[in-house]
Design a protein that fits this description.
The protein has helices spanning about 5-20, 20-30, 35-40, 50-60, 70-75, 80-90, 90-115, 190-195, 235-240; strands spanning about 120-125, 135-140, 140-150, 160-165, 185-190, 200-205, 220-225. It is α+β, with helices and mostly antiparallel strands.
């Protein structure tokens, strides 16, 4: 069954359970009665405005009208609830998902800025070892962005500290956990672990601290001032400009 037909059936069911006529729903949703008749036959051409208005009339979220399965639910043969329930059972799984979720939220922010500022022209979201999380084109030049979550300090909710360290050293025991300064141009620190909101602060890599006598490497821990002060900024565009 195609999506339009599935949405039409949901509309019929919701209206029927409330005992509303087409006319009553039309009045509540500010949509013509004829249009509602058409949507209950096939909702392929339903607009975003109509989805929002009809959802408001039923006092439900717009997403409740759209029976969409995520591709992972199909690939894994499990519901989103099952996937989240399994994730909740493992500390490492939650850390991993939070890390990727922070990247997703940052990607949304970058895309929003790209639509508003022509100087930010392209964005690539990487998923490969030894590559920065994002590669963007800013004012005609490439800029690499690394995304990290701040550490969680339950007893110090105001402390913002980000850790820059890879998973493991090389097989020969040499230090490959520390990040080299030339690996990325901007650090994006997600504040969710402490602030419980998907906010970011940014710092050009050239301003990050290096270990004593190792100027080519970056220190493992970096304190973030609260409220934000230079060289940290809560404006992505400022960090991109300063990274040049």
């Amino acid at each position: 069954m195609d999506l339009g037909k599935r949405v039409a059936i949901i509309l019929q069911d919701l209206r029927g359970r409330r005992g509303w006529s087409h006319g009553e729903l039309a009045l509540r949703a500010r949509v013509s009665e004829q249009r509602l008749n058409d949507l209950e036959i096939a909702a392929d051409s339903m607009t975003l405005s109509e989805i929002t208005s009809i959802a408001d009339a039923f006092e439900i979220t717009p997403g409740s009208l759209l029976p969409l399965d995520h591709k992972l639910e199909t690939e894994w043969g499990a519901s989103a609830w099952d996937v989240l329930s399994a994730t909740a059972r493992g500390f490492r799984a939650k850390v991993c998902v939070l890390g990727k979720l922070a990247e997703f939220k940052l990607f949304e922010i970058i895309e929003e800025h790209r639509e508003l500022d022509s100087r930010l022209s392209t964005v690539t979201w990487n998923d490969a070892d030894d590559q920065p999380d994002f590669l963007v084109t800013w004012d005609g030049a490439p800029v690499r962005i690394e995304c990290k979550n701040v550490r969680r300090y339950a007893d110090k909710p105001s402390r913002l500290r980000v850790e820059l360290q890879k998973t493991r050293n090389s097989k020969d025991g040499s230090n490959t956990r520390s990040y080299r300064r030339d690996k990325f141009d901007v650090l994006a620190a997600c504040l969710y672990n402490q602030a419980r909101s998907w906010r970011f602060v940014f710092c050009p890599t050239k301003h990050l601290v290096a270990p004593p006598s190792l100027p080519d490497l970056l220190a493992i821990y970096h304190e973030i001032p609260s409220p934000t002060t230079l060289p940290w900024t809560d404006k992505l565009i400022d960090a991109l400009q300063e990274s040049r």
